[in-house]
Amino acid sequence: MRALLGSVKALNGAEAVAYAVKQSNVDVISAYPITPQTIIVERLSEFVANGEIHAEYVNVESEHSALSTCMGAAAAGARTFTATSSQGLALMWELLYVTSGLRLPVVMAVVNRALSAPINIHCDHSDSIGARDSGWIQFYVENSQEAYDTVIQAFKIAEHSDIQLPVMVNLDGFHISHTLENVNILPDQVVSDFVGFRKPANVRVEYLGREVPAVLDGVTPISLGIIALSDYYYEFKMMLVDAIDKVKSVIKEVHNDYLKVSWRGYGDGLIDPYGVDGADIVLVIMGSAAGTVKYVVKKLLESGLRVGVLRLRTFRPFPYEEVVKVLSGVKVIGVMDRATSPGAYGAPLFNELRSALYDLDSRPTVVNFIYGIGGRDLEPLTVKRICEKLLEFGRGVKPASYVEYVGVRR
Amino acid sequence: MDVRHPLDRYLRTDRLPHIWCPGCGIGIAVSSLLRAIDRRVAEGLFTHDEVAAVSGIGCTARATFYLNFDSAHVIHGRAIPFAIGLKLVRPNLKVIVIGGDGDIAAIGGNHLLHAARRNVDLTVVMVNNMIYGMTGGQVAPTTPPNVYTTTTPSGNYEYAINIVKLLSALNVNYLARASVTHPHILERYLYTALGKEGLAFVEVISPCPEVFGRHIGYRDPVELFKKFKSMIKYEERPSLDKSDITLNLDKEVVIGEFVNSSRESFIKIIDRLGR
Fold first, then answer.
1. Short-list B108, B50, B119, B52, CA closest to B81
2. Which of A48, A50, B29, B251 is least enclosed by beta carbons within 10 angstroms?
3. Residue B5 falls inside a structural domain
4. Nearest beta carbon to residue B76 from set A41, A46, A87
5. B65 to chain A: nearest residue by CA?
6. Which of B107, B130, B152, B159 to mutate to test the interface with A (most CBs of A within 10 A)?
7. Which of A45, A50, A61 faces B151 most closely, judged by CB atoms?
8. For A312-361, what is each residue's pLDDT tens digit?
């Protein structure tokens, strides 16, 4: 076995993100404090103040300005990073669409937190799940180690010449952001070599008759943010749709390259199955609670039950082909959502997964379990009960409801 | 024997104790506000039930959680537009906006600007502790130059915003700066502000020992309080040229009434137009 490259540091998830940013040759960082994200920007401002990274750090007056500043810097050709949570992401809303529409490869860490009202600082995915249609690539990580690894990969994916799209790395507020873990850190040089420096993609300018870098570089004038009405808008959006369709293969490629330097991987980079092969029932989940679910599933596997977990690492792009491939043949599937979509038939992960499975010849029973809203704890016992219920469905019991809210007083 | 404090009626005492740290100035600001309200209620300018308090997010903004008025604890920076909506529908209410510098002058700065321009009938109390306190002490637009914070570990290299000077350009009806180190003056200004039509703004200088004082070398809240007290200089009608806050050990922070006028207020204009 090869010796572990780099060193081990005790870092919480927020610090792990900051450390990854520190090593990733970032030029401009702009952020606004919000719990539970604040640690990320505090650490980054320390790195900048200590001269450990040669980046500009801008303390802005709101999240709206934070993302705007990153957009301006990215448009000028810089590698940029910002971080936020909950209401901060909500305030960035109009800019999320502009960032992807202008094809600016901004990387943002979102420390997931419930949205107001009522005011709540604890974790659920309602902030970032709400932003699912904004054209950003979305990762959901399971622990601090993955947060570190994913941020490094994110720069490479965002800036890939075929992609040029912003990436959101989501980590669960407090569960990951404030939990101290041993994190394997790669040597600075290894990360620096892996991510390199940002090379802006070229764009063909018709009136010049040649390709120029798609940045405001003061060499060749280009214009960003033009008006495209009913004559051209659709074509621009189609380019975005086509670009995000290419992301899955790029994520797998970058994940594979990273595996070679770090010896660490998460499934194929898109989905991370555990015990799914030959399982009767499978739980599908994203984020830190996957750890709890795996713990329970491991116990159940030991007791001889055929139970599996499928953790989705990306929600955008949604890995529908990969999911269908691993889940075909499974009879009962429980989808664990950490966000609500009031008025919808089930929550977003459930909707998309069920839709992806619709074309299977023999459709499985798919049931939604909505959990952990506003930081409500997901106990192993609850997971065990969910598994027992799914096993019952496997024996032919018909679910009373296909959408269940677990752990809530009514 | 009932041992309730006479101001307890203005508090939701079941929600106490509050979250403010020992040595924080917000408690003094809030109690001064309650005394000023009590005096106005005793005078019959408005009743207890006619007071409404609106706040955004932050340490100071938590006040509305404890105040026994119609109150709303809304979104970071958006207390003023919420309060304008409230005032338009219930013009009989005395609408008070209470919040910190981060809430009112930073993320909500644009709303403050336009509420001031319109001279909306609001009493805005901005507790200025020169820092984002609730998130743990990050630099704010009100943080004086060279101050160490968790996001400016080598000292703040930006200029601070001077809200007094800014609002003076927008001709608000009342503009004063007070300090929790001088609570009688603070109470007097709040009392005057509550009696005004149009926009009445009181900036309240307040020490944050936990995440502001500690970073600038004051380990003891009392020491920081004394430092603030020694810097404060009271002037009856100070000139705007003296309104900058530098926190330079040699320079003073001037408190006083900068503007006291009676331009026709927003609600009065609407009434006059018969809308």
1. B108
2. A50
3. no
4. A87
5. A119
6. B107
7. A45
8. 999 999 999 999 999 999 999 999 999 999 999 999 999 999 999 999 99
Q: Would you state the structure tokens that stand for residue B151, as one six-digit string?
A: 């996001």
Confidence of residue A1 (pLDDT cuts 50, 70, 90): very low
Q: Do B150 and A35 touch (CB under 8 A)?
A: no
Asked, for residue B7, whether it belongs to a domain, the answer is no
How many structural domains does chain B have? 1
Query: Tens digits of per-residue pLDDT, B3-48?
Result: 889 999 999 999 999 999 999 999 999 999 999 999 999 999 999 9
The rounded distance, in Å, linking the Cα atoms of A349 and A369 is 10
Task: Please name the residue of chain B whose CA is at the shortest distance from the CA of residue A30.
Answer: B151
Note if the bond before B17 is cis, omega within 30 degrees: yes
The answer as to whether B234 is a domain residue is: yes
Quickly tell me which residue has 């079941």 as its tokens.
B14
Taking only the tens place, the pLDDT of each residue in B119-168 is 999 999 999 999 999 999 999 999 999 999 999 999 999 999 999 999 99
- Say what the ipTM of the complex is: 0.91
Whether the CB-CB separation of A187 and A3 falls below 8 Å is answered with no
Rounded to the nearest angstrom, the minimum Cα separation between B236 and chain A is 33
Instruction: Report how far apart, in Å, the C-alpha atoms of A207 and of each of A75, A203, A204, A226, A229 are.
Output: 21, 12, 9, 16, 21
B10 belongs to a structural domain = no
Collect all residues of chain B within an 8 Å Cβ-Cβ radius of residue A119.
57, 73
Domains of chain A: 2-199+246-262 (3.40.50.970), 271-405 (3.40.50.920)
Domain CATH code at residue B245: 3.40.50.970
